[in-house]
Amino acid sequence: MTDRSTGVAAAKGFRAAGVAAGIKANGKPDMALVVNDGPSAVAAGVFTSNKVKAAPVLWSQQVLTTGKLTAVVLNSGGANACTGPGGFQDSHATAEKVAEVLGIGAIEVAVCSTGLIGERLPMPAVLAGVETLAKALAPGADSSLDAASGVMTTDSRPKQSALTHPSGFTVGGFAKGAGMCAPNMATMLSVVTTDAAVDQPTADAALRAAVGQTFNRLDVDGGTSTNDTLLLLVSGASEVTPDPEVFTAALTEVCADLVAQLQADAEGVTKHVTISVSGARTDAEAVATAREVARDNLCKTAFFAGDPNWGRIAMAVGNAPTEFDPSGLDITLNGTVVCQGGVGVGDRMAADLSGLDILVEVDLHAGGGRGTVLTTDLSHAYVEENSAYSS
Amino acid sequence: MTDRSTGVAAAKGFRAAGVAAGIKANGKPDMALVVNDGPSAVAAGVFTSNKVKAAPVLWSQQVLTTGKLTAVVLNSGGANACTGPGGFQDSHATAEKVAEVLGIGAIEVAVCSTGLIGERLPMPAVLAGVETLAKALAPGADSSLDAASGVMTTDSRPKQSALTHPSGFTVGGFAKGAGMCAPNMATMLSVVTTDAAVDQPTADAALRAAVGQTFNRLDVDGGTSTNDTLLLLVSGASEVTPDPEVFTAALTEVCADLVAQLQADAEGVTKHVTISVSGARTDAEAVATAREVARDNLCKTAFFAGDPNWGRIAMAVGNAPTEFDPSGLDITLNGTVVCQGGVGVGDRMAADLSGLDILVEVDLHAGGGRGTVLTTDLSHAYVEENSAYSS
């Protein structure tokens, strides 16, 4: 059912491009453009919850109030955050340039940026890059890969996904970054496209449902960036109108695949950790508990060591904003029960955490709520990458 | 005015001891005893807010409901947390043994433990250790040092403080651990003594005020442990009854000195970082904002690098649970303004963070609230120590 090789221009009606525009000093790809040729121009988006929002986020939120987008232009090499009114004018000028070369209105163009916070973008390079991008626009796998590559910062590889449903519609996209949570000054950016013929309310509801179960469940280091943006573009070119539940499921599958790629390429990652909490009073409390474990540096260094030190997990669970009776706490590591009824059982070393994947299961025995958060370990490489990077 | 060399038995009416009882396999000191010879037995305490509380915390909270304590027995080498009813019986039995050798009631004995979570204590060693401790009890500097040494886990040195007020009363004490926040399975334990003649409500109020400004403002890694305990013992032996404000100020000074020593000896520390927030709507929001920066791994790795990457601080401030206008955000690093009105100013590299001390000043321009949190950097040594330790 799936062909995950083709990315953001996999769905009918989309073209993409990626180029090295000279924003990055090292000459690597640093700009991308995605264009929706229709017939629909429906779009939906979700943006960072950080109160310090980058200029391109403020711009894109504004133009998306129409519920429509024809193009998205993205750059790496600079976040254009904490750049004041001048930075906002830069985002606006970039959209105007895209509108000019495509013969559309600037209000149809979203802008995304990622990189170091607090520096203005080199606008001559950006505006020249837009012209190069427009000439390179094409459908298919090569241009999808170019676009996915143009937004990379500390990513070691592009992240793409695509899925064609048996009923005839396709969902595809790319993502960059190592989480919703700002690893480095890199930030999470993602553009997902579909040729399904869905209206704006359906697209918006499906996107929010998918994000709640995928992107918002990845927590690498707790730091939601100033630039996080996920945009969904709908061309309708397949002329297939799926049931909203079918469409949401397909969109969720593509998003989950992109998130798994983000987790696998997170900064310094040596372990892929899944924290699954059940028995909470509510699903929200289960997610909050899983997130507390996912953010705890003592748990994360134990994961790095492959150390089944479940006492650190019990400590983190005890600090979570949730109500439970500690004498009912169960903890299972990669299938081995290590804590039952709040007390250690058996030999903790029987839990084998030496492999790449670690599954932490916590049962609070306080209700029917459940939720899962994906995270990574805290390694020497994470410290190295984040103490050596930039400025 | 101050003599900070003598610790927990500096005040009149106190004796202390520390021994190697064989709980730790490496033969290092692992037990301590502090005895209040009166005439007063007033005591106050604060305990971890973690919902998963260690057995000795449950025991000590119970006996402290009387507002009085005659002795505190402490051990390192095991946290006695997540050990169930059997673990609670171990704490009780330890208190009974202390009561027996001192000729007092078990209800007058608090118990503190620190070390790995989830393992039962070797009770024969603990009970024999109590007998050894009782024989070693003495006033003065040597026994204070022994007691401070007996509770160390990953601490590299004992932390002690004492202060004699001109009016004639003394406050002294020790602390162990690298924060309120569980570094390793080590936990924050502290015993502070005074010969001031203050009643229980005064002692309790002074302790809570002092802790709010000192211990609760240190955040090494966000993980409040299962065992955190701070006890204040009052002998009244100086026969001086200070004004409550004078007493609170003296107690706060000793606590602040102990906290500075905890910060300086935090796991893997290479930078002593002070996050000072002003202009918040309330003091609580200022502290919450400072804590968000203190807990952010991207900020902490930048501190490790001595990198004035203020964009990461802006990102963390934007994630804090506080209301402010991002276009009013000012950030100053070691006296150099790097962000003003939400926009970068000047050359960020003019801020020199190469030394041991880093002062981060954030002004939200949203009100008159202010607050400070102490933290440390996130270094390779932190990862090493926490991935190599135990189990």
TrEMBL record, chains A, B:
Uppermost EC category: transferase
Record's protein name: Arginine biosynthesis bifunctional protein ArgJ
The gene coding this protein: argJ
Gene Ontology biological-process entries: L-arginine biosynthetic process; ornithine biosynthetic process
Alphabetical UniProt keywords: Acyltransferase, Amino-acid biosynthesis, Arginine biosynthesis, Autocatalytic cleavage, Cytoplasm, Multifunctional enzyme, Transferase
Residues that bind substrate: T153, K176, T187, E267, N386, S391
Catalytic activity, as annotated: L-glutamate + acetyl-CoA = N-acetyl-L-glutamate + CoA + H(+); N(2)-acetyl-L-ornithine + L-glutamate = N-acetyl-L-glutamate + L-ornithine
Metabolic or biological pathway, per its Swiss-Prot or TrEMBL entry: Amino-acid biosynthesis; L-arginine biosynthesis; L-ornithine and N-acetyl-L-glutamate from L-glutamate and N(2)-acetyl-L-ornithine (cyclic): step 1/1; Amino-acid biosynthesis; L-arginine biosynthesis; N(2)-acetyl-L-ornithine from L-glutamate: step 1/4
